[in-house]
Protein backbone atom coordinates (compact mmCIF):
# COMPACT_ATOMS: atom_id res chain seq x y z
CA UNK A 1 0.00 0.00 0.00
CA UNK A 2 1.21 3.52 -0.74
CA UNK A 3 -1.06 5.34 1.70
CA UNK A 4 -2.11 4.92 5.29
CA UNK A 5 -4.92 2.55 6.16
CA UNK A 6 -7.84 4.50 7.63
CA UNK A 7 -10.67 3.25 9.84
CA UNK A 8 -13.51 5.55 10.91
CA UNK A 9 -15.55 4.60 13.99
CA UNK A 10 -18.71 6.65 14.46
CA UNK A 11 -21.76 6.52 16.69
CA UNK A 12 -23.64 8.26 19.46
CA UNK A 13 -22.60 9.00 23.02
CA UNK A 14 -21.59 5.91 25.05
CA UNK A 15 -22.06 3.67 22.03
CA UNK A 16 -18.69 1.97 22.51
CA UNK A 17 -16.71 3.89 19.89
CA UNK A 18 -13.50 4.38 21.86
CA UNK A 19 -13.56 0.84 23.23
CA UNK A 20 -13.93 -0.63 19.75
CA UNK A 21 -11.15 1.56 18.37
CA UNK A 22 -8.87 0.62 21.25
CA UNK A 23 -9.41 -3.12 20.81
CA UNK A 24 -8.98 -2.81 17.04
CA UNK A 25 -5.57 -1.17 17.51
CA UNK A 26 -4.49 -3.67 20.15
CA UNK A 27 -5.31 -6.59 17.86
CA UNK A 28 -3.02 -5.39 15.09
CA UNK A 29 -0.23 -3.67 17.02
CA UNK A 30 1.64 -4.57 20.18
CA UNK A 31 2.48 -0.95 21.00
CA UNK A 32 -0.31 1.26 19.65
CA UNK A 33 -0.38 5.04 19.85
CA UNK A 34 -3.22 7.06 21.38
CA UNK A 35 -3.61 10.63 20.10
CA UNK A 36 -5.67 12.66 22.57
CA UNK A 37 -7.30 15.71 21.01
CA UNK A 38 -9.20 16.79 24.14
CA UNK A 39 -8.37 19.81 26.25
CA UNK A 40 -8.99 19.79 29.99
CA UNK A 41 -11.52 22.60 30.12
CA UNK A 42 -13.27 21.67 33.36
CA UNK A 43 -13.62 18.97 36.02
CA UNK A 44 -15.94 16.86 33.89
CA UNK A 45 -13.46 16.77 31.01
CA UNK A 46 -10.63 15.91 33.40
CA UNK A 47 -12.67 12.96 34.70
CA UNK A 48 -13.39 11.76 31.16
CA UNK A 49 -9.71 11.92 30.26
CA UNK A 50 -8.72 10.05 33.43
CA UNK A 51 -11.23 7.31 32.65
CA UNK A 52 -9.87 6.84 29.14
CA UNK A 53 -6.30 6.71 30.45
CA UNK A 54 -7.30 4.01 32.95
CA UNK A 55 -8.88 1.94 30.17
CA UNK A 56 -5.60 1.76 28.26
CA UNK A 57 -2.76 -0.51 29.26
CA UNK A 58 0.92 0.37 29.75
CA UNK A 59 1.70 -0.75 26.19
CA UNK A 60 0.03 2.40 24.82
CA UNK A 61 1.99 5.52 23.94
CA UNK A 62 -0.09 8.65 24.50
CA UNK A 63 0.40 11.86 22.54
CA UNK A 64 -1.60 14.98 23.39
CA UNK A 65 -2.18 17.08 20.30
CA UNK A 66 -5.02 19.52 19.71
CA UNK A 67 -4.46 20.71 16.12
CA UNK A 68 -1.55 19.66 13.90
CA UNK A 69 -1.59 15.89 14.28
CA UNK A 70 0.82 15.37 11.38
CA UNK A 71 3.64 17.03 13.32
CA UNK A 72 4.08 13.80 15.30
CA UNK A 73 4.61 11.64 12.22
CA UNK A 74 7.80 10.07 13.58
CA UNK A 75 5.78 8.47 16.40
CA UNK A 76 3.24 6.91 14.03
CA UNK A 77 5.40 4.92 11.62
CA UNK A 78 4.63 1.22 11.66
CA UNK A 79 1.98 1.66 14.36
CA UNK A 80 -1.75 1.52 14.86
CA UNK A 81 -2.80 5.03 15.86
CA UNK A 82 -6.10 5.79 17.61
CA UNK A 83 -7.20 9.42 17.19
CA UNK A 84 -9.87 10.16 19.79
CA UNK A 85 -11.77 12.10 18.75
CA UNK A 86 -12.57 14.11 15.60
CA UNK A 87 -15.36 16.03 17.32
CA UNK A 88 -13.06 17.55 19.92
CA UNK A 89 -10.41 18.01 17.25
CA UNK A 90 -12.82 20.08 15.15
CA UNK A 91 -13.80 21.99 18.30
CA UNK A 92 -10.15 22.97 18.71
CA UNK A 93 -10.10 24.39 15.18
CA UNK A 94 -13.29 26.34 15.94
CA UNK A 95 -11.59 27.83 18.98
CA UNK A 96 -8.41 28.54 17.02
CA UNK A 97 -10.41 30.52 14.45
CA UNK A 98 -12.31 32.40 17.16
CA UNK A 99 -15.73 30.89 16.42
CA UNK A 100 -16.12 30.48 20.17
CA UNK A 101 -13.97 30.20 23.27
CA UNK A 102 -14.44 27.63 25.99
CA UNK A 103 -14.88 28.63 29.64
CA UNK A 104 -11.88 28.66 31.91
CA UNK A 105 -11.79 26.68 35.12
CA UNK A 106 -15.30 25.96 36.38
CA UNK A 107 -16.96 28.84 34.57
CA UNK A 108 -20.09 28.07 32.57
CA UNK A 109 -19.95 30.90 30.03
CA UNK A 110 -19.03 30.20 26.40
CA UNK A 111 -18.07 33.21 24.30
CA UNK A 112 -19.54 33.02 20.78
CA UNK A 113 -18.56 35.03 17.72
CA UNK A 114 -21.34 36.52 15.59
CA UNK A 115 -19.34 35.88 12.41
CA UNK A 116 -19.79 32.32 11.17
CA UNK A 117 -17.28 32.54 8.30
CA UNK A 118 -14.41 31.41 10.55
CA UNK A 119 -16.30 28.13 10.98
CA UNK A 120 -15.80 27.40 7.28
CA UNK A 121 -12.12 28.19 7.65
CA UNK A 122 -11.88 25.87 10.65
CA UNK A 123 -13.49 23.03 8.70
CA UNK A 124 -11.18 23.50 5.72
CA UNK A 125 -8.11 23.53 7.95
CA UNK A 126 -9.26 20.32 9.63
CA UNK A 127 -9.75 18.64 6.24
CA UNK A 128 -6.34 19.78 5.02
CA UNK A 129 -4.63 18.54 8.17
CA UNK A 130 -6.42 15.19 7.88
CA UNK A 131 -5.26 14.80 4.27
CA UNK A 132 -1.71 15.61 5.29
CA UNK A 133 -1.85 13.19 8.21
CA UNK A 134 -3.01 10.16 6.22
CA UNK A 135 -0.51 10.71 3.41
CA UNK A 136 1.89 8.44 5.33
CA UNK A 137 2.04 4.95 3.89
CA UNK A 138 3.04 2.77 6.86
CA UNK A 139 0.38 3.61 9.45
CA UNK A 140 -3.08 2.36 10.37
CA UNK A 141 -5.17 5.27 11.66
CA UNK A 142 -8.37 4.66 13.61
CA UNK A 143 -10.45 7.83 13.96
CA UNK A 144 -13.25 8.06 16.51
CA UNK A 145 -16.00 10.55 15.78
CA UNK A 146 -19.52 11.39 16.92
CA UNK A 147 -22.74 11.12 14.95
CA UNK A 148 -24.22 14.30 16.37
CA UNK A 149 -26.57 15.09 13.49
CA UNK A 150 -29.06 12.33 14.25
CA UNK A 151 -30.79 14.08 17.14
CA UNK A 152 -33.16 17.02 17.41
CA UNK A 153 -32.62 20.18 15.40
CA UNK A 154 -30.23 22.40 17.40
CA UNK A 155 -31.78 25.50 18.93
CA UNK A 156 -28.80 27.83 18.56
CA UNK A 157 -27.17 28.92 15.31
CA UNK A 158 -23.67 28.01 16.52
CA UNK A 159 -24.81 24.49 17.35
CA UNK A 160 -26.35 24.12 13.91
CA UNK A 161 -23.15 25.32 12.26
CA UNK A 162 -21.04 22.91 14.30
CA UNK A 163 -23.35 19.96 13.55
CA UNK A 164 -23.11 20.75 9.84
CA UNK A 165 -19.32 21.06 9.93
CA UNK A 166 -18.97 17.86 11.94
CA UNK A 167 -21.10 16.04 9.39
CA UNK A 168 -19.03 17.39 6.50
CA UNK A 169 -15.79 16.41 8.25
CA UNK A 170 -17.16 12.91 8.87
CA UNK A 171 -18.05 12.62 5.19
CA UNK A 172 -14.57 13.75 4.19
CA UNK A 173 -12.91 11.17 6.44
CA UNK A 174 -15.38 8.46 5.44
CA UNK A 175 -14.65 8.99 1.75
CA UNK A 176 -10.96 8.32 2.41
CA UNK A 177 -11.49 5.51 4.93
CA UNK A 178 -10.98 1.87 4.06
CA UNK A 179 -13.44 0.84 6.76
CA UNK A 180 -16.33 2.69 8.41
CA UNK A 181 -17.88 1.20 11.54
CA UNK A 182 -21.11 2.46 13.14
CA UNK A 183 -21.41 1.63 16.83
CA UNK A 184 -24.86 1.08 18.33
CA UNK A 185 -25.23 -0.02 21.98
CA UNK A 186 -21.73 -1.44 21.96
CA UNK A 187 -22.27 -3.44 18.77
CA UNK A 188 -20.26 -2.68 15.61
CA UNK A 189 -22.04 -2.42 12.28
CA UNK A 190 -19.82 -2.37 9.21
CA UNK A 191 -20.84 0.48 6.90
CA UNK A 192 -17.89 0.32 4.53
CA UNK A 193 -15.32 -2.40 3.90
CA UNK A 194 -12.28 -2.66 1.64
CA UNK A 195 -13.15 -3.72 -1.86
CA UNK A 196 -11.49 -6.94 -3.03
CA UNK A 197 -8.70 -6.52 -5.53
CA UNK A 198 -9.83 -6.47 -9.13
CA UNK A 199 -8.19 -9.78 -10.04
CA UNK A 200 -9.39 -11.70 -13.11
CA UNK A 201 -10.90 -15.09 -12.33
CA UNK A 202 -9.52 -18.04 -14.24
CA UNK A 203 -10.56 -21.69 -14.28
CA UNK A 204 -8.88 -23.84 -11.60
CA UNK A 205 -6.07 -26.18 -12.54
CA UNK A 206 -7.15 -29.49 -14.03
CA UNK A 207 -6.50 -32.72 -12.15
CA UNK A 208 -3.42 -33.61 -14.19
CA UNK A 209 -1.73 -30.31 -13.35
CA UNK A 210 -2.61 -30.64 -9.67
CA UNK A 211 -1.01 -34.10 -9.61
CA UNK A 212 2.06 -32.67 -11.31
CA UNK A 213 2.23 -29.88 -8.73
CA UNK A 214 1.97 -32.33 -5.83
CA UNK A 215 4.68 -34.57 -7.30
CA UNK A 216 7.00 -31.63 -7.86
CA UNK A 217 6.45 -30.38 -4.32
CA UNK A 218 7.17 -33.82 -2.89
CA UNK A 219 10.35 -34.12 -4.96
CA UNK A 220 11.62 -30.71 -3.85
CA UNK A 221 10.88 -31.59 -0.23
CA UNK A 222 13.38 -34.46 -0.38
CA UNK A 223 16.30 -32.33 -1.53
CA UNK A 224 19.16 -31.63 0.82
CA UNK A 225 19.31 -28.27 2.55
CA UNK A 226 22.13 -27.06 4.76
CA UNK A 227 21.12 -26.23 8.30
CA UNK A 228 21.66 -22.84 9.82
CA UNK A 229 24.69 -23.10 12.13
CA UNK A 230 23.06 -20.89 14.77
CA UNK A 231 19.73 -22.65 15.21
CA UNK A 232 16.39 -23.66 13.75
CA UNK A 233 12.70 -22.80 13.88
CA UNK A 234 9.81 -25.02 14.91
CA UNK A 235 6.61 -23.77 13.28
CA UNK A 236 3.14 -24.79 14.42
CA UNK A 237 -0.48 -23.64 14.47
CA UNK A 238 -2.01 -22.93 17.86
CA UNK A 239 -5.75 -23.45 17.46
CA UNK A 240 -6.52 -22.31 21.00
CA UNK A 241 -5.38 -18.75 20.39
CA UNK A 242 -5.75 -18.88 16.58
CA UNK A 243 -2.16 -17.93 15.94
CA UNK A 244 0.84 -19.14 13.97
CA UNK A 245 3.66 -20.01 16.35
CA UNK A 246 7.39 -20.10 15.63
CA UNK A 247 10.02 -21.08 18.20
CA UNK A 248 13.71 -20.50 17.60
CA UNK A 249 16.11 -23.00 19.21
CA UNK A 250 19.87 -22.71 19.33
CA UNK A 251 21.88 -25.64 18.03
CA UNK A 252 25.21 -26.70 16.59
CA UNK A 253 26.00 -28.77 13.51
CA UNK A 254 28.62 -31.50 14.03
CA UNK A 255 31.26 -32.72 11.57
CA UNK A 256 28.77 -35.17 10.05
CA UNK A 257 26.22 -32.45 9.38
CA UNK A 258 23.92 -33.59 12.16
CA UNK A 259 21.94 -31.09 14.21
CA UNK A 260 22.84 -31.25 17.89
CA UNK A 261 21.90 -29.36 20.99
CA UNK A 262 24.47 -27.11 22.61
CA UNK A 263 25.82 -30.10 24.57
CA UNK A 264 26.51 -32.08 21.40
CA UNK A 265 23.55 -34.49 21.60
CA UNK A 266 21.93 -35.31 18.26
CA UNK A 267 18.38 -33.96 18.00
CA UNK A 268 16.08 -36.48 16.28
CA UNK A 269 13.42 -35.11 13.94
CA UNK A 270 10.61 -36.52 16.08
CA UNK A 271 12.06 -35.32 19.38
CA UNK A 272 9.66 -33.99 21.96
CA UNK A 273 11.14 -30.58 22.59
CA UNK A 274 11.00 -29.68 26.26
CA UNK A 275 13.82 -27.16 26.22
CA UNK A 276 12.49 -23.58 26.25
CA UNK A 277 13.11 -21.77 22.97
CA UNK A 278 15.47 -18.83 22.71
CA UNK A 279 12.72 -16.77 21.10
CA UNK A 280 9.03 -17.33 20.44
CA UNK A 281 6.84 -15.54 17.92
CA UNK A 282 3.07 -15.56 17.53
CA UNK A 283 1.18 -14.00 14.64
CA UNK A 284 -1.95 -14.18 12.54
CA UNK A 285 -0.51 -14.07 9.04
CA UNK A 286 2.63 -15.11 7.19
CA UNK A 287 3.42 -11.48 6.51
CA UNK A 288 3.19 -10.58 10.20
CA UNK A 289 5.47 -13.49 11.11
CA UNK A 290 8.14 -12.57 8.56
CA UNK A 291 8.08 -8.94 9.70
CA UNK A 292 8.58 -9.97 13.34
CA UNK A 293 11.37 -12.44 12.57
CA UNK A 294 13.33 -10.68 9.84
CA UNK A 295 12.62 -6.99 10.46
CA UNK A 296 11.78 -6.42 14.11
CA UNK A 297 14.08 -9.05 15.64
CA UNK A 298 17.36 -7.19 15.41
CA UNK A 299 19.31 -10.16 16.78
CA UNK A 300 17.93 -12.60 14.21
CA UNK A 301 20.79 -15.06 13.56
CA UNK A 302 19.57 -16.35 10.19
CA UNK A 303 22.12 -15.72 7.46
CA UNK A 304 21.00 -18.10 4.73
CA UNK A 305 18.59 -16.84 2.07
CA UNK A 306 17.61 -20.47 1.48
CA UNK A 307 16.51 -20.82 5.10
CA UNK A 308 14.71 -17.46 5.00
CA UNK A 309 12.79 -18.53 1.89
CA UNK A 310 11.97 -21.87 3.51
CA UNK A 311 10.65 -20.15 6.61
CA UNK A 312 8.49 -17.84 4.51
CA UNK A 313 6.96 -20.85 2.75
CA UNK A 314 6.24 -22.52 6.07
CA UNK A 315 4.57 -19.41 7.40
CA UNK A 316 2.40 -19.27 4.28
CA UNK A 317 1.44 -22.93 4.72
CA UNK A 318 0.63 -22.32 8.37
CA UNK A 319 -1.55 -19.32 7.52
CA UNK A 320 -3.48 -21.38 4.98
CA UNK A 321 -3.94 -24.17 7.51
CA UNK A 322 -5.07 -21.70 10.16
CA UNK A 323 -7.63 -19.93 7.98
CA UNK A 324 -8.94 -23.05 6.21
CA UNK A 325 -9.01 -25.35 9.24
CA UNK A 326 -6.42 -27.70 7.72
CA UNK A 327 -3.77 -29.79 9.42
CA UNK A 328 -0.33 -28.21 9.39
CA UNK A 329 2.87 -30.26 9.25
CA UNK A 330 6.22 -28.51 9.01
CA UNK A 331 8.22 -29.64 5.99
From TrEMBL:
Main location class: plastid
Which GO CC terms are listed, alphabetically?
chloroplast
Keyword terms: ATP-binding, Cobalamin biosynthesis, GTP-binding, Kinase, Nucleotide-binding, Transferase
Its recorded reaction(s) are: adenosylcob(III)inamide phosphate + GTP + H(+) = adenosylcob(III)inamide-GDP + diphosphate; adenosylcob(III)inamide + ATP = adenosylcob(III)inamide phosphate + ADP + H(+); adenosylcob(III)inamide + GTP = adenosylcob(III)inamide phosphate + GDP + H(+)
| EC number of the protein | 2.7.1.156, 2.7.7.62
**Location of this chain's protein in the cell:** Plastid, Chloroplast
- Residue ranges constituting the DUF4346 domain according to the UniProt record: 228-331
Listed GO MF terms:
adenosylcobinamide kinase activity; ATP binding; cobinamide phosphate guanylyltransferase activity; GTP binding
Q: In which pathway does it act?
A: Cofactor biosynthesis; adenosylcobalamin biosynthesis; adenosylcobalamin from cob(II)yrinate a,c-diamide: step 5/7; Cofactor biosynthesis; adenosylcobalamin biosynthesis; adenosylcobalamin from cob(II)yrinate a,c-diamide: step 6/7
The record ties this protein, via InterPro entries, to:
CobU/CobP, P-loop_NTPase, PterinBD-DUF4346
Major enzyme class: transferase
Family statement drawn from the similarity comment of this UniProt entry: Belongs to the CobU/CobP family.
Q: What does this protein do?
A: Catalyzes ATP-dependent phosphorylation of adenosylcobinamide and addition of GMP to adenosylcobinamide phosphate.
Please name the PANTHER family in this protein's record.
Answer: BIFUNCTIONAL ADENOSYLCOBALAMIN BIOSYNTHESIS PROTEIN COBU, PTHR34848
Q: What is this protein called?
A: Adenosylcobinamide kinase
Q: Which organism is it from?
A: Hanusia phi
Amino acid sequence: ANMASVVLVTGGARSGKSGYGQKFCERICGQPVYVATAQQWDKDMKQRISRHVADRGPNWKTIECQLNLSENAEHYRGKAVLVDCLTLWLTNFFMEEGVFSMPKGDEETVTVSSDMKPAETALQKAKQEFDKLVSQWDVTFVFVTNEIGSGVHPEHSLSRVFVDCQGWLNQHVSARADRVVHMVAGQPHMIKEPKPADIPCYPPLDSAMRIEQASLDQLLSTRGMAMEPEGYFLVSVDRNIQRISAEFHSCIVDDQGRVCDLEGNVIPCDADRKVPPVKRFEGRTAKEMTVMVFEEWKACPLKSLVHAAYLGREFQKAELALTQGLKYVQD
